[in-house]
Amino acid sequence: MNLNIYFRKSVYLMLFLALGTLNSCTEDVNENPLVATNVDASFTITPVAGAMNTYLLTAQPKGVIFSKWDLGDGAFNGKMNQVISLPDAGTYTVTHTAVGAGAAMTTSSQQIVVAQTDPAKGNLVQGGTFATAADQAKWTSAQLSPSGAAFWSFANNSATIHSPGGWAQEGIYQAIEVVKDREYTIDMNVSCPSGSDETWFEVYAGKSVPQPGVEYKDNKVMGLSTWDGCAKDKFSGRLSGIGCVKNDATGTVSNVVKFSESGKIYLLIRSGGNTFTKDGITVSKIEFRGK
Questions:
Q1: Domain locations in the chain as residue ranges
Q2: DSSP secondary structure string, 218-278?
Q3: Rounded CA gap, 203 and 176, in Å?
Q4: What would the pLDDT profile of 139-180 be if each residue is shown by its tens digit?
Q5: 43-117 has which fold?
Q6: Quick one: fold of 123-290?
Q7: Which residue, 142, 194, 191, 165, is CA-closest to 272?
Q8: Which positions make up the signal peptide (predicted)?
Q9: What one-character DSSP code corresponds to residue 48?
């Protein structure tokens, strides 16, 4: 009889210990002390004195490891004290993503209303949104793919370069008037839901006139290249932030250009590759602005 009672007590004790261990494991999973639970994404917006349409975004620092910002063109890794320029009049939604311990993230958004376009930083690109047939007509084909194997299509306020691979490529361009010794910046939204191999997407701002069927190589400014380490996987954002191709003039990754004389230059985008993404590479909101 005593042995039976002892056996039952031992079973109860084992069940109690097992349940206690299971509960402890559950608590460890649900309450990981390495993941922050109170990341604050709040920030302030302060106009920068003496600089038109320029703002300082200041994120509160407590519990934040780094910041991501989105001005409506896609998120980019930024600083906790980030200076931004909004040259064109309009209403902008600024979204801050605060990243804390354990990759915990929260977001916060505010609006900025820009009353006037900055005349010194107006966009010199015509039809850079591809919104209408008139916009699309501002661009000329470089005719690098006579068979039409590689081609650009227009839809949804954007342009997309398609290629079957095998080194087929195509380009589009337009002429822009520039002023001697003035600095300009070039930028655009670029995206693709899948990656490529042995592929390039390059932006040029050269003085030489593009010739049909001739690969343009005058003054490469920026771009994507699987050889340089980007476009291998899906991507989306401003080319200035996600590109990895070096600027011919500076030898660094930079979207700044300057010219030794005033006159006409050609903004040209060409892309292609050996194993090109099946989805194509899409561009929108192309800009060429005085710095």
A1: 43-117, 123-290
A2: S-EEEEEETTTT-SSS-EEEEHHHH--PPPTTTSSS--EEE-SS-EEEEEEEEEEEEE--T
A3: 14
A4: 999 999 989 999 999 999 999 999 999 999 999 999 999 999
A5: Immunoglobulin-like (2.60.40)
A6: Jelly Rolls (2.60.120)
A7: 165
A8: 1-26
A9: P
